């Protein structure tokens, strides 16, 4: 069921992604087609502009011819003024046409010939005007235009017609291309619109389907959460009852063990006291009748019994310490936590001050760096830090100056307190083992019963935190205590 759902979701995702991709391609195509239409539109406008410029040049040629004729016939200076103005405009218009047709080699060649013929034509016109101003008629024959004038004018008109026809052909071709581009743009826009509608419909369908699935999943999750909350509450209650039962059991067992232990310790003391008169008796008998006391008896009274009593006393004292430690753990587990804002910097300084005599004796350097404030049980966290610093002092390397650093940082709503030393270190395989009750690591050359770190972990758990170790042999150790920024009141309740 889950596999089919995942396949369906993947298919929907791919379909929507493909639709949006196609829509993107269509948008690019629309932009391209629009740009092409713009380009063709500019080309059409350019062709019309060239054609209009050629027509303006033809009008200028006609105007200058009319002005010359008027001057030759009427000898009116106004015609001469028009003639000069038009003669000045013709080269300017030719340059404008040259700029417009610079990208068309055929038109450039025609315009070059046109410029040459224009210069020749203007020269002929100026000769006739100059002749008229000198008192002549300004004409070489019976008409105002002689054969040479007619030839040049005809050539100019032919070139003008060629240029106009060429531009008209370009105009027709470019208009056709523009129409095709508009047609293509319309088709592309239509396809893009259809794709947009399809993608929109598909997206709406997929969104509705996803929302329905999310709603169903939310309802299921709500039911599961309710079941989980009830299960967690039930399991928590069971754990609290089990924990309370274990604490009561530890307390009862410790008291029950203490009673026979006290008896053993008392009878051991009596035996130890009886050894002295027994030894004196053996000495007197040995002096009076040496043959009556065997060597085995003398060895048993003088060697075996004191040694056995010493072993018994050592074992009972160790067992007494273990029972006391179990009682402390039991009492600590029953204590109600008192939550307050704990200044961890002041707490670290207080711990260091309490151990200052031992620190000075060992010549250890202790550095404290800023530690964020936490809302927790002061006594419990002080016991944790104190125990970790004491352990660091206990397991330093004698062949190098000791250094201990207490520092902290805030991360993800929690405070990490680190106690780092440069001592003998801990084998990586024992990083978890050292937190077990009555378990120790490395050489057992320091006093202790293997309870301190177990107590530290139990306290850390009660404070909603964890304790971990990073170390390697001869490289020192770093213990990291992770605590919530603020312990919830229910977490501090008695368990």
From TrEMBL:
Regions that span the bilayer: 12-34, 182-206
Enzyme class: transferase
Highest taxon in the source lineage: Bacteria
Gene Ontology biological process terms, A to Z: osmosensory signaling via phosphorelay pathway
Coiled coil: 43-70
This protein's record includes keyword Kinase: yes
Protein name in UniProt: histidine kinase
Organism: Jiella endophytica
């Amino acid at each position: 069921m889950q596999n089919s759902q995942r396949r369906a979701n993947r298919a929907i995702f791919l379909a929507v992604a493909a639709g949006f991709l196609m829509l993107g391609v269509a948008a690019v195509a629309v932009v391209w087609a629009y740009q092409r239409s713009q380009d063709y539109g500019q080309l059409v406008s350019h062709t019309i502009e060239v054609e209009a410029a050629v027509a303006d040049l033809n009008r200028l040629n006609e105007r200058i011819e009319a002005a010359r004729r008027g001057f030759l016939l009427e000898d009116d200076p106004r015609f001469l003024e028009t003639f000069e103005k038009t003669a000045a405009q013709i080269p300017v218009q030719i340059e404008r046409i040259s700029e417009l047709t610079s990208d068309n080699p055929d038109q450039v060649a025609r315009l070059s010939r046109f410029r040459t013929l224009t210069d020749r034509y203007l020269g002929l016109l100026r000769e006739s005007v100059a002749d008229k101003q000198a008192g002549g008629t300004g004409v070489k024959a019976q008409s105002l235009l002689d054969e040479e004038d007619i030839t040049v004018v005809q050539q100019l008109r032919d070139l003008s017609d060629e240029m106009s026809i060429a531009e008209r052909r370009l105009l027709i071709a470019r208009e056709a291309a523009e129409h095709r581009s508009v047609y293509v743009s319309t088709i592309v826009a239509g396809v893009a619109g259809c794709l947009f509608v399809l993608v929109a419909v598909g997206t709406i369908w997929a969104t509705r389907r996803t929302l329905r699935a999310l709603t169903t999943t939310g309802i299921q999750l709500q039911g599961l959460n309710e079941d989980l909350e009830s299960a967690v509450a039930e399991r928590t209650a069971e754990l609290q009852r089990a924990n309370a039962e274990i604490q009561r059991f530890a307390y009862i067992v410790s008291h029950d063990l203490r009673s026979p232990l006290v008896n053993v310790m008392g009878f051991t003391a009596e035996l130890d006291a009886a050894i002295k008169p027994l030894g004196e008796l053996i000495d007197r008998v040995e002096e009076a009748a040496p043959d009556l006391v065997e060597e085995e008896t003398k060895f048993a009274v003088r060697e075996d019994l004191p040694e056995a009593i010493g072993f018994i006393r050592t074992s009972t004292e160790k067992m007494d310490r273990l029972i006391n430690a179990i009682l402390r753990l039991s009492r600590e587990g029953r204590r109600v936590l008192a939550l307050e804002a704990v200044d961890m910097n002041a707490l670290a300084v207080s711990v260091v001050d309490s151990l200052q005599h031992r620190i000075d004796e060992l010549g250890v350097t202790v550095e404290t760096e800023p530690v964020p404030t936490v809302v927790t049980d002061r006594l419990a966290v002080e016991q944790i830090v104190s125990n970790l610093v004491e352990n660091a002092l206990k397991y330093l390397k004698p062949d190098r100056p000791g250094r201990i650093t207490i520092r902290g940082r805030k991360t993800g709503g929690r405070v990490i307190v680190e106690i780092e030393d440069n001592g003998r270190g801990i084998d990586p395989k024992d990083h978890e083992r050292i937190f077990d009750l009555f378990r120790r690591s490395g050489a057992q050359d320091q006093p202790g019963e293997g309870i301190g770190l177990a107590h530290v972990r139990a306290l850390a758990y009660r404070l909603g935190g964890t304790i971990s170790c990073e170390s390697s042999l001869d490289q020192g150790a770093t213990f990291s205590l992770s605590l919530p920024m603020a312990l919830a009141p229910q977490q501090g309740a008695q368990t």
